[in-house]
Amino acid sequence: MKKLLIRRLLAAIVVLLLASILVFALSRMSGDPRHLFLSEYTTDEQWEQWGRDFGLDKPYHEQYFRWLSGAVLLDFDISVKEQIPATTVVLRKIPNTLQLAAGAYVFALLVGIPLGIFSSILRGTFLDLFARGFALLGQAMPGFWLGIMLILIFAVWLGWVPAGGKDDLRSLILPSITLGWFAAAALLRLTRSAMLEILDSEFVKLARAKGASQWTVIIKHAFRNAIIVPLTFAGIFLSALLTGAVVTETVFGWPGLGRLALQSVFGTDFPVISAIVMFATAGYLAMNLFVDILYGVLDPRIRQS
Amino acid sequence: MASNAQTTSDTVNAPLVVGEDRNVLRILWHVLRRYPVLPSFIVAILVIAAVFAPWLAQHDPLVGKLKDQDRPPIWQESSPISGKEPLWDYPLGTDPLGRDMLSRIIWGARYSMMIASVVLISGAVGGTILGLIAGYFGGIYDEILMRMVDLTLGVPFILVALATVVVFGSSMVLIISLLILFSWSGFARQIRAETLRLKASDYVALAVVAGATSRRIISKHVLPGVVNTVLVIASLNIGQLILTEATLSFLGVGIPKPRPAWGSMVAEGRDYIDTSYWMALFPGLAIFAVVFAMNFLGDWIRDRLDPRLRQL
After folding, report:
1. Least confident segment among A194-203, B103-112, B247-256
2. Which of A123, A258, B181, B307 fits as disulfide partner to A245, beta carbons 3.0 to 4.6 Å?
3. Which of B32, B153, B159, B295 to mutate to test the interface with A (most CBs of A within 10 A)?
4. Of the candidates A22, A140, A246, which has its C-beta nearest B155's C-beta?
5. pLDDT of B83 over the 80 cut
6. Are A59 and A151 contained in the same domain?
7. Residues 6+ apart with CB under 8 A from B34
8. Minimal C-alpha gap between A32 and chain B (Å)
9. Least Cα separation, residue A265 to chain B (angstroms)
10. Are residue A217 and residue A290 in the same domain, yes or no?
11. pLDDT at A190
């Protein structure tokens, strides 16, 4: 287990390095960074001086190592637009996106788990059909379109909630549903198949055979073993979060990481883009590593291999 | 007695008729459950629309008529903003430039299908070849491939795609290349695993003993064994691919304008959501229906060809 983890950790570091090369190459291919930072009124002297100060007269691989040694210390240079460190710009937006993610995850849990359980218990009934239909439809729904349709129905026609922005708790409802919809459908499918497998297992049959009631079997024996699904699903959910956040925050004007990413891309603010991509990649890798460890803790069979 | 016999035969006949009726319904239900009728129908419409778009579309998808700006769909009395009445010429209404929504959606199907098929075929071929090589030869090839797969999974694709388009400018070639980079890794990973499994089998060992070259073993002994898997992954991925392309188009970096793409049509409709809801509704419904049908067919094909891949 320990050896495996070290191997995975090394692999993760390699992937992070590859990602950093990708990001650096993209930012340099967009042109000389001086075009972004300096105005057209700078003298040639200032231009050269700036280049020397930031190592732009050096070959690319030296520039890369300079950039990388900054990135390791979470220094991604100054944001072009805001003129403060890019890391600060990114960190400021993270709480808003986490708030949205929490809302979405709660929605996914509230919809996905109960529907998944009921559809596995009442297999083949109308409710099961409905739940599976929901899962299929949910996974086919484009997030940006769902968001706009929710705005149309609940903000424009019914006027129950604001159409966008971030004021009170009400403004969190529609973005949470939009971001959580896909996750709810996925969670439903996972819960359903996990429950079906467990309901078919020997120990559930034994519990039934010794006369436990239907509810005792479901709650005490089956569900307690199926609960591992939402736990590990949190990892998948968080790793897919940024993509969903870009779309959802754009549709609803939510001031989070996703909208910042989109604005930075269109404003060619490469320090901020680099910071977001590197944070997101590191987050994804850390999450995967964490899930691996969690599996080991929860399932002793894996620990020994 | 005769009348009695009549009634008996009536009572005997009556349930029989009902029974036949139920049989028809049951057969219908059975067919609907067993075969993906509705999804196949949706995909058929999509393919027809994509192939025959120039003949099916009644209007130019790019140039509108000024006098027909902002027509509502046919079932609505008038447009809330301009008060214009619907025309049978524009069953789904028009946008503020006077372009027919239906014609644009039909042309959108053409672009969506074109991109999806090019990307899927390239991604499947590339991913399969890389997966075969990594799985069969192992070692350094395997290590490099798996780190590349990790990279494509770990890096937020949408953001990198956005940044790339901003740096190089929007073009059809670029967007197709980006989507290929996004789609190959699923194939590579699964085919590698399958190759590892097949490589350990007796008939491959026999082929090695018989002196077959690696190239021959891969193409004659391993490849036929993974074809089903490739087909299953392709059919499972196509929906996700269409969705990703639509998302990129929605964000403004997908199919370059002014070509009508479903995603960018929804984006245009967002600005008119309080007055002309049909602009966002119909293109989104098209994406939704197509992705739903593709996902459903993908599940169905997987269950037929290779139920082992259920966890995918």
Report:
1. A194-203
2. A258
3. B159
4. A22
5. no
6. no
7. none
8. 12
9. 6
10. yes
11. 84
Return the DSSP state at A269: -
Does A178 touch chain B if contact means CB atoms closer than 8 Å? Answer: no
Using alpha carbons, select from B166, B162, B270 the residue that is nearest to residue A253: B270
Give the H/E segment covering residue A221: none
- Max intra-chain CA distance, chain A: 88
Distance from CA of A98 to the nearest CA of B (A): 17
Identify whether A81 is part of a domain: no
Does one domain contain both A6 and A137? Answer: no
Could you give the residue ranges of the DSSP H alpha helices within chain B?
2-34, 37-51, 53-56, 101-137, 139-154, 157-168, 172-199, 202-209, 214-216, 223-250, 262-270, 278-305
d(Cα A150, Cα A52) in Å, to the nearest integer? 53
Q: Tell me: the pLDDT tens digits for A58-115? A: 778 888 888 888 888 888 877 877 778 888 888 898 899 889 998 998 998 888 888 8
Residue B4: pLDDT above 60? no
Give the pLDDT band of residue B16 (cuts 50, 70, 90): very low
Q: Clarify whether residues A135 and A67 are in a common domain.
A: no
In a domain, A221, yes or no: yes
With 70 as the cut, is the pLDDT of residue A209 above it? yes
From A44, A72, A100, the end of a domain falls on: A72
**Distance in angstroms (rounded) separating the CA atoms of residues B76 and B282:** 14
Report how far residue B159's alpha carbon sits from residue A193's, in angstroms, rounded to the nearest whole number: 33
| pLDDT tens column, B42-69 | 999 999 988 888 888 888 888 777 777 7
CA distance B221 to B234: 21
Instruction: Round to whole Å and give the CA distance between B144 and B183.
Output: 18
Within its chain, how far is the Cα of A123 from the centroid? 32
Phi/psi at A85 (nearest 5 deg)? -50, 135
Residue A230 lies in a domain: yes
How many domains are contained in chain A? 2
Average pLDDT of chain A to the nearest whole number = 82
Residue A79 within a domain:
no
ipTM, interface predicted TM-score of the complex = 0.83
Task: Supply the DSSP string of A75-103, one letter for each residue.
Answer: ---B-TTTSSBHHHHHHHHHHHHHHHHHH
Closest CA relative to residue A248, chosen from A140, A111, A96: A96
Find all residues with CB under 8 Å of A257, minimum gap 6, and list them. Answer: A90, A93, A94, A96, A97, A242, A245, A249, A276
Closest CA to B205 of B223, B221, B227: B221
Most B CBs within 10 Å, among A29, A145, A278, to test the B interface = A145
Structure tokens given for B7: 């009634």
Mind listing the pLDDT tens digit for each residue in B112-167? Answer: 999 999 999 999 999 999 999 999 998 899 989 988 988 888 888 888 898 898 88
Nearest CA in chain B to A288: B154
Domain range enclosing A58:
2-72
Phi, psi dihedral angles at B63 (to 5 degrees): -110, 130
CB A127 within 8 A of CB A119: yes
CB contact burial A2-38 (16+ within 10 A = b; e otherwise): eeeeeeeeebbeebbebbbebbbebbbebeebeebee
**Nearest-by-CA chain A residue for B157:** A243
Report how far residue A236's alpha carbon sits from residue A294's, in angstroms, rounded to the nearest whole number: 14
